Amino acid sequence: MNEERPSITAEGAAVMRALHQSSEHEPRILDDPISPRLVDMRSDFYKARIELLQRLPPLTRSRFETTFVMRNRFAEDCLAAAADRGVRQYVVLGAGLDTFAYRQPPWARSLHIFEVDQFATQQWKRRLLSEANISAPGNLSFVPVDFERTSLATALRQARLDLNVATFFSLLGVTQYLTEEALDQTLQFILSGCSGSEIVFSFVVSDELLPADNIGLVKAIAAQSAAAGEPWISRFHPDQLVARLRSMRFSGVFHLSPEEANQRYFQNRRDGLTASILEQMIRAIV
Predict the structure, then answer these.
(1) Is the residue at 3 inside a domain?
(2) pLDDT tens digit string along 145-192?
(3) Coil, helix or strand for 205?
(4) How many CB atoms lie within 10 A of CB 164?
(5) CATH code assigned at 253
(6) Alpha-carbon torsion, ordered 54, 278, 197, 191, to 10 deg
(7) In which domain, by residue range, is 63 found?
(8) pTM score > 0.90 for this model?
């Protein structure tokens, strides 16, 4: 990723979350009134995303849309459970235009939230928030990190994260842009923390697990990301990823399969929304 400019993929995710709010889908998978305020619906980027969606078959479009809202919904559901157990620190890794801190429910006010991202993306986000008259809450800390110069552990210590207490981490829409070595380093850092800490992260599955009619879309999305300087690097088979996490000695590992996601979030809907196959979720507990 180019450290000198904000993330294009962060903007794409925000557009998809915003579109979900403006649709007629009820109930929404994710209630996010903030994302539409951070998105410029007159921009060429927004118009290009709309044109892409209009070209997709209905089922493919449904799965593509839900990718961006289900991952936040699942992470926030897991965070709520962690907060109920007494966890009081939340670290959003690769935060991009994540909006949780600005729409946080009452139960989250006891959390200290840390948004971690590259400097340019954070500056861009803070400008968008200011233009939308959205104030940063008092329980939020921005943590800009240049990973070529500073480790995640150092940056979080400087931001006053207490590494001696249980902490919840999310890493959403990011792992495909990391090398496996970089992902392992992040996971090892979390493992080195307090018992009861956990991470929820999304990952892009290998081509062999995708329906044939999805592979062309996946190649197009990957090509667009690469052209924007954010190439996909790592993709995974869920069973192999779960085995890897268990071998690293996480005490609990849960893979939210599309089948389980459909059962949890998409039952009895009349709008045709269904869980993403391309991007799936893992929860790993220290």
Answers:
(1) no
(2) 987 688 899 999 999 999 999 999 999 999 999 999 999 999 999 999
(3) strand
(4) 8
(5) 3.40.50.150
(6) -140
(7) 8-285
(8) yes
Q: Give the mean pLDDT of the chain.
A: 92
Residue 251 lies in a domain: yes
Q: Which amino acid is at 285?
A: I
The set of residues, in sequence order, having a beta carbon less than 8 Å from that of 245 and lying 6+ positions away, is: 187, 253, 282, 284
Is the C-alpha dihedral spanning 240, 236, 194, 197 positive or negative? negative
Token pair of 126, please?
């803070």
- CA-CA distance, 112 to 91, in Å (whole number)? 8
d(CA 238, CA 281): 9
Query: Into how many domains does the chain fold?
Result: 1
**62 is written with which tokens?**
């449904």
Maximum separation of any 2 CA atoms in the chain, in Å:
50
Amino acid (one-letter) located at 109 = R
Could you tell me whether strands 89-93 and 140-144 are parallel, antiparallel, or unpaired per DSSP bridges? unpaired
- In the chain, the DSSP E strands lie at 89-93, 112-117, 140-144, 168-171, 198-204, 252-256, 279-285
Tokens 């999305």 correspond to 221
Q: What is the pLDDT of residue 48?
A: 85
Does the residue 1 lie in any domain?
Answer: no
Higher pLDDT, 54 or 105: 105
CB 286 within 8 A of CB 94: no
- Cα–Cα distance between 268 and 276 in angstroms, integer? 17
Q: Please indicate, yes or no, if residue 30 is contained in any of the structural domains.
A: yes
Which of the two residues, 214 and 164, has the higher pLDDT score?
Answer: 164
Alpha-carbon gap, residue 279 to 136, rounded angstroms:
30
Mean pLDDT is lowest, of 4-18, 232-246, 270-284, for 4-18
For strands 112-117 and 89-93, give the pairing.
parallel
* Of residues 194, 196, 195, 214, the one with CA closest to residue 206: 214
CA gap 80, 116 in Å, rounded: 20
